[in-house]
């Protein structure tokens, strides 16, 4: 038996996720990411020949390219993620935490600690192929399940070699709470845990708060799930927040990110907590917006810990820079396990690789 992995997109920079795994005569697409920046084409899908697609979670860089795929292509995702699919798109249910078969290949899923309905993916072939999607150990709401052993680890490295603990991020954001703030956030991810934290801070500081109705609805959805799909200690806080009325003139606003700009919110400072598009980088450089990360991805020590846990022989850091000096830092972190190849070939006895051209890596646009 043999298998191959072809990383169509997401290697060498922060870009759409799209990975093809071929085994037993079948080709599975792991995620179908859309462009992070408006107007950019989704090129990885051109001429693609696959048997099924599995979606890890509902953020645009993992699901936004579904519209580029044939409508008849079997698509697997969890029921909550299915709500973000194009209207009328057929799908088949992927378990939140269990094993199923997709095109005859054993697929195990578990909670990824990143977003509502999001899962990691493990393929039971050739010693195991593990794909984290986006993942985090530090969420106060979303659990992270320990995956089975895997020979190959395709890991979320969106933060590069950054390794600041979540509490340090929270403390840094706290320093800005003395001014009117708007937080634009992905509505199914960090929005939910930030809502709980902001409610606690507002009460402690005597501040007024308003939370986007979509975020409230997602908190209600999370609370209705089986208790094993959330951190159980948060239930009472979620219930309290759902009964809390929004302030009519809030000093703090948590909103679903709809490409908001500083000009759209006069009298407030926009504080972003995640990836910045080029236009937002320009706003930050001009002093028009604020930025402080809230951890929702694996930081460096957690990525290494995860690779150790699953006993990976080769580790591919995804969604991050792989040119120098970052590449040297990855070599230090992962040693001989580091893989920067676009294509990997596996069989029972050996693991061969085809290296992505170094110039192609070095010429990729910065995240």
UniProtKB/TrEMBL annotation:
GO molecular function: hydrolase activity; RNA endonuclease activity
Record-linked InterPro entries: MBL, Metallo-B-lactamas, RibonucZ/Hydroxyglut_hydro
Keywords of this entry: Hydrolase
Domain Metallo-beta-lactamase: 15-176
Entry-linked Pfam families: Lactamase_B_2 (PF12706)
Transmembrane segments: none
Entry protein name: MBL fold metallo-hydrolase
Taxonomic placement: Bacteria, Pseudomonadati, Pseudomonadota, Gammaproteobacteria, Oceanospirillales
